[in-house]
Specification:
This protein is mainly beta. The protein has three helices and 14 strands. Helix content is 11%, strand content 43%. The relative contact order is 0.21.
Length: 232
């Protein structure tokens, strides 16, 4: 359940920036370690105008989210129940004139490295509570940061953290992280996310829709059914 809720949070915040670079369609596989003796894998699928995230976290099971910015919706797939749920996607902020300055620094180093076959450049990130590095490529497209995250990495871990600076720096840029390393300035909690495989290939439309025969889960109808007389 914890993993599923994390996936839901991630999907909701990725939705406004689900876009692929021109000519890129395919899948990016990640290994994620939260620094708390647990790990998970995530596959981020991109097709023009669409995105999908699948996660697998050992005994916590798997989950998937489909993001459709054109329809302004997020589809959450529940494989064990063969059900799906549709939620409205949050709209990106258009007025940032009154936004506070990012609480940290984002420094371009000029150092590059091949990660999963793609060239990425190293950036240094510093904030009050977290320090780290992020390796970005401009060959895949945009990957929106999670903003205020529950830990040293984007949406994983524990404990509220302030925006670390690189969220604002990436806004509106077609940059995709292939490696993220961060740790608390005090304590040993660390976060690592790294791309292990990038597959540029055509993906079927069916990957971005609920499987045939699955039932749509209606939270409103369920809640109405729990209240006596509400269905009348």
């Amino acid at each position: 359940m914890k993993t599923f809720l994390t996936l839901l949070l991630a999907g909701a915040l990725f939705a406004p920036a689900a876009s692929a670079a021109p000519g890129f369609e395919g899948k990016v596989s990640f290994k994620i370690d939260s620094g708390k003796n647990d790990s998970m894998t995530m596959v981020y699928s991109l097709k023009p105008g669409l995105a999908r995230m699948d996660t697998q976290a050992g005994k916590d099971g798997s989950g998937a989210i489909i993001i459709n910015p054109a329809k302004e919706e997020i589809v959450i797939l529940m494989a064990e129940q063969q059900m799906y749920m549709v939620q409205p996607a949050p709209k990106p902020k258009t007025d940032t004139s009154s936004a506070p300055a990012p609480a940290g620094s984002f420094e371009k180093t000029g150092v590059t490295e091949k990660i999963a076959g793609y060239t990425a450049e190293k950036y240094l990130v510093k904030s009050k509570d977290f320090n780290g590095e992020i390796w970005l490529t401009d060959q895949i497209g945009a990957f929106l940061s999670l903003g205020e995250a529950d830990g040293p990495g984007p949406g994983f871990g524990g404990g509220k953290s302030p925006a670390s600076g690189w969220e604002a720096a990436l806004a509106g840029k077609d940059l995709f992280p292939l490696r993220v390393l961060s740790s608390k300035t005090k304590g040993k909690d660390a976060f690592r996310m790294e791309a292990t495989l990038i597959e540029k290939k055509s993906l079927p439309d069916s990957d971005f829709a609920p499987p045939a025969g699955w039932q749509k889960f209606d939270m409103g109808a369920m809640m109405r059914g729990m209240v006596p007389g509400s269905g009348r």
